[in-house]
Amino acid sequence: MDADPDRARELLERARALSSRREYRELAATLEPLPRDELLGEPELGFLLADVLRRLGKAETALDLSRAVRPEAARRGNYRLGRLCLNLEGMALFDLGRVELAESAWGELLHLSSESRDDEMVARVNNNLGVIHTLQNRPAPALAAYGRAVTAYQRLGYRRGLAQSHHNLAINYRELGFLTEADEHFLRAAEYARADSSEDELARVEQERALLLFYAGDPEFAEASARRGLARYGRLGDPTGQAECYRILGIIALGSGRKAAAAGYFQEALELAEGAGASLLVAETLEALATVDDLEERASQAIVRRAEAVQRFQALNAVSWGQKCRAQLQAIARGEHPLPGPERDQVQRPPA
After folding, report:
1. pLDDT score at 135
2. Which pTM was predicted?
């Protein structure tokens, strides 16, 4: 039976509206029951479902659907949608720990987007490649990639992209010990996220800025920021974001000597991250749990968890990031500051 064009149009308009409002659970509930041929018959419906499935922690399903949608988009001459699918494939591959394949997908996308003069997609790819540089402990190319993304997004006036880029810059400056510079970028990211009504980006700022506030010596404000992010992610139905916040709450508890609370937060983070297939976050959380095991003199359990964490970092080509993660956690457990001493500065402003 032929597809009803009116139904497809109505569905697409509804799905676009839900996506623009970031009502992810309702969007998934609307599109998941549709048969696959209907999703591919209107490829944008398939893409919107794949995109929201990844956001809800179903990266493998999202990858499979996006790969099916991309040739259908090309067959209809919708090359912009095809590029969106390729970007989504890179993100899903990254979530699943297949970093080399993700980098390859983004490299292809950068070529296609440059040829098509798709400045927005060029900016997105630079953001994504910057994340890979960060994980491989290459701060200079990471900062350069994020800087290129900011420049492109400024030309476009794309506030959500500016929020993402400033957020990524903030993380890099934080990890280098430049806390004031990091906070300036976090606050800019929050400003752009609010202006764009991007609840998910605002949650990410609250999550990562919490760690900055902890490093700056404000554990109370740090916990409040992490809990705001946790609540926001809960409303969005984002299990990976919730897991990130629990991990940071665990770090804050670890730094204040609350070992049992830290272990509880880390365990909550691990279960959510495993369910969402967030391989990097699983590795980071296993390392955190191993640190608590060390403190509690559970040597055999610490060895097992740390070995699994190392394997995951290796699979992600993020060995340097894993080593930094371990060193920081061990410093926090000893009551020491985890950032580079000579470069570390302080955040003077009150939290937003």
Report:
1. 86
2. 0.81
